[in-house]
Specification:
Elements (H helix, E strand, L loop, with lengths): L2 H25 L8 H13 L3 E4 L8 E5 L4 E7 L13 H16 L2 H4 L1 E7 L10 H7 L8 E3 L2 E3 L10 E10 L15 H15 L8 E8 L10 E10 L2 H22 L2 E6 L11 H13 L20 H7 L2 E2 L2 E3 L10 H6 L3 H23 L1 H12 L1
Parallel strand pairs: 3-4, 3-5, 5-11, 6-12
Antiparallel strand pairs: 1-2, 2-4, 7-9, 7-10, 8-9
Helix pairs in contact: 1-3, 1-11, 3-11, 6-7, 8-11
Length: about 400
Amino acid sequence: MDAKAGAQERFATVREQVIALSHRIHAHPELGFEEERAAAWLSESLADAGFAVETGICDLPTAFIARAGSGPLHLAICAEYDCLPEIGHACGHNLIAAMAVGAGIAAAKVADDVGLTISVIGTPGEECGNAGGKILLLERGAFAGVHAAMMVHPSPYDTVTPKIIAASTFDVYYTGKEAHAAGFPELGINAADALTIAQTAIGLLRQHIRGTDRIHGIITRGGDAPNVIPAHTAAKYIVRAQTLAELDELRPKVQRCFEAGALATGARVEFVGGDKPYAEMKHDPEIAAIYGRNAAALGRGLASQGADPERAAGSTDMGNVSLAIPSIHPSIGINSLPAVNHQPEFTAHCITPDADQAIVDGSLAMAWTAIDLALNRALSERLIKNRRA
């Protein structure tokens, strides 16, 4: 029996367990860095499959690493399992986690035979937008010795190299002064006005940014009572650009808009976050091509993008991993259209038969890709050599 057949046979023994794991995580959504149940369930599943599991790594209670095999090529498969506020697993992280477990177990079956070390790394807090789990894990050494990394993300459609752009997420806080809104408004400093001016300035700024830039946010505090001049307001904003370099140009322009609100009203402004932005994704072309062939062999329709690739862009801390280690982040379709990621309708699609089939295909495509990387001597040597350098 060849290595891929052996991996497929091993996955068949845990297929229903892996799908059930996806459904369980979906039914119990947890926010970033609070994924206690998901992290425990994933760790237990991998430990039961023979992995050596370490939990709470790098001072992150809901991060873990599970390792199997002892081959010279060390491949990391990243698991995400946090949800979005109010709408649960509307980005399908329950599938990402299940596919990571399924791929890891399948590849571990033949790891020593083909020369692999497999690490499934549990990476919390991807939806946080700043200082995400993978960024902290990179900084704290969780990826030390890893030669390549991969994960697969659910989407309305399949694509090997989806467009993933840089992003900076930060909070803005205005501090003014309370006063009676009708009796003595002249004594107040209106922090809500400061935020209104900032948003207006951002609207005008849009004429002078690249067509690929994105600026969007929400008001998280607008005041406390309509008859009190608001002294405290807050917003959370995300600024995106194609690369970290372009992001460094855009972010100060946006922050000056918030500073304009403070200047106009006399309020004080404070920025929190934005210090650890998400990087653009650099898909390794050789690894991506191998994944594409394996996904196609499983019947995935990779030719159909389903949307304008320049418009349908997202951001992830996997981009930061890709700038440090050769990586891929393909998307796998769950037949959800017209529902797309970050809609409650997409949440519902993440436990359908199509989503379950994506778990099967994504798990096997990653496991087979890991095997191909190990057996491709030139590529394996390139990955090992580059990491040492």
